[in-house]
Amino acid sequence: MQIKPFALIALCCCLFLPFFTKASPWVGTVDKQLHYDLQTLVEWGFLDTTVNTYPVPWRGISSQVDNLSIDAMPYRPRQALLRLKHYLSIQKQAKARQYLMLQGASDDVRFRSLDDGVDSTGKATLLTELYVGPWSAQVSVNYSKGGEKNIDNSFLAYQFGNWNLRLGSIEQFWGPAQSSSLILSNNSRPIKALALSRSSTAAPEHPWLSWIGSWYFTSQIGQLERTRVVPDTKILLNRFTMRPFDGFELGASWVLMWGGEGQDESVDSFVEAVTFQSVCIRPTGVCTKSQLTKRGNHIAGFDLSYTARLFARPVSFYIQRIGEDSVDGYRITDNANLFGISTYVQGVKVFVETSDTNVNCDGNATNNLNCFYENGTYQTGYRTYGRALGSTFDSDAKQMTAGANFRFENGAVAELLLRDVELNRDGVRPSPLLIDSDSENVLELSGFYQHPYGQWLLKAGGSIARREFSEKTSTDSLIYFKAQYAY
C-alpha cells in the first residue's frame, strides 16, 4: 500500500488556482520568526493561545492581535506585535502572494533549530499561498543542487467548523524547546500526510470543558520514503496541547511507525498497533510471554512549560520527556529528557536548555545504550532521508545550548547559539550525524542576521565548530545565505 498525494495536491491546486487569493491558515509558515513573535506575546501575557506546537492556526489569534494596542507595551512584545500586525495587513490585501526563495551554503548544516541554518547547500523555491472560502493551499516547488526536485511544504486544506483537513506536508515542531524537539522537529524533510487538526486554539465554550483553556489537537497519517530498510513505512502522528491556566501549557505526543513493504498492513494489525496489543511476530508464530512485542514502533511522551513573572519580566521553565518502549504496557522504559529556562534581558530573549538521548535500553541502571530512535524491525530508525525526525542531535547525544534572540526597530532579527554536544560517547552504533569518527565532542557557535528590504527578506548566517575526536581536533566553519522575494 503506497500513498502518493503529490498528483492529487497539484491537480486540486491547479483547479482552484483561478479562485484563490493570498492567505495562510497557520502562523509562520513562510517566516518562522512570526511564531516566536506569537510566543513572546503569550509569555508577556498579552495573548491567550497555545504556542508549544508549530505551526498553530491564525483563526482566533488574528482577532486578538488586531485588538491589541502597542501603547505602554515593553520593547520586546511591542516589536512582536508590530511584526504580526504587519503580516496580517499584508494578508488582508486582495491580491495573490507568491514568493521566490533562494538559499546557498558553503557546506551542509549539521545542527538545526526551528529557524537556524538551511536544509540544502543550494536550493531555489517557488511558493504560492492560496485561499478561498473554506479552502486553502500552499504550492511549493523546490529545485535543489544536483537536480533534485520536490514539492515539500505543499498542501491542500479544507476547513469545516473548528476543524481543518489537510493533505500534503508542512514543517512542524512539537514542544516548548528553542533548539530542538525530542519527538518531532523540522530537522528532517517534512512528512507527507493526511491531517485532521483544530482550526482554532480557542477554549471550549461548554462550562464543563472550559477549564481546559486554549487547546489544540492534530492527528496525521502519512508515509515515509522508499529508500529505507522497510520502504513506505506508514506513520501516525498525534499531538494534544492545552493551557488550563495562565502561564501553564501541557502537551502530549504519540507517534506510531507501522506497516511498510514486507510488513502486515491489514486493518487487524493496525488495530493491534493503536491499541498497544502484544503480538508474536516470530516466523513460527509461537512465542513465550517474554518474546511478545508491541505491534509497530511507538514513541510518546509529554511536555510542559510554565511562565512566571519574576523581576518584572517573564521567566519560562519547560521540560520534555519522550520514551520509546514499555515493559508492561504502560511503564515507559527508554526515556529521553529535555530541560530549559528562558527569559528576557534588555529586550533580548535568552535561554539555556539541555537534552540527553543516552537512554538505558532495558530500563535499568546499565550502560546498555544505542536504542533511542532505533528499532529491530524499522532499522532505519526514527529518521527520514538520513536525519532524525526528532532531535537534531539524534540518538546517544548529550547537549547544552545557550541562545540569544534579538529584535530591532527596523524589523530585523538576529540570533546567536552556543552548543556543547557530546555525540555517541560509547563509540557503538553511531548515528548518521557521525561521519568522521564513532564518537565526537563538538563546541559550536552559530548565528544569523535577518533583515527586510522592501519586498525582500534577506538572511545571512554561519557557524564555527571545534570538533574533538579520540586522537585529533579539527575546526569546521560554514556560511549560508537566504533570500526571499514576495510579489
Structure description:
- With 487 residues, the chain is mainly beta.
- The protein has a domain at 6-344: Porin (Beta Barrel).
- It is built from five helices and 25 strands.
- The protein has helices spanning 6-16, 33-43, 61-67, 75-91, 267-274; strands at 53-54, 97-105, 122-132, 135-144, 149-150, 155-160, 163-168, 173-174, 192-198, 214-223, 234-245, 248-258, 278-279, 293-294, 297-310, 313-323, 335-345, 348-356, 383-384, 387-388, 397-407, 413-423, 440-453, 456-468, 473-486.
- The strands form four sheets. The protein has an 18-stranded antiparallel barrel.
- α2 (33-43) crosses α4 (75-91).
- The radius of gyration is 22 Å and the shape is globular.
Q: The biggest beta sheet, please?
A: 18 strands, antiparallel, barrel
Radius of gyration, taken over Cα atoms and rounded to an integer in Å: 22 Å
Shape: globular
Given the helix and strand composition, which structural class is it?
mainly beta
* CATH class group of the domain at 6-344: Mainly Beta
- The helix content is 10-25%
* CATH fold topology of the domain at 6-344: Porin
- In the CATH classification, which architecture of the domain at 6-344 applies? Beta Barrel
Give the tally of β-strands: 25
Total number of helices: 5
CATH homologous group name of the domain at 6-344: Capsule assembly protein Wzi
Question: What is the helix/strand order?
Answer: HHEHHEEEEEEEEEEEHEEEEEEEEEEEEE
Which stretches are low in confidence, meaning pLDDT under 50 for 5 or more residues running? 13-22
- Report the mean per-residue pLDDT as an integer: 91
- Amino-to-carboxy terminus distance: 40 Å
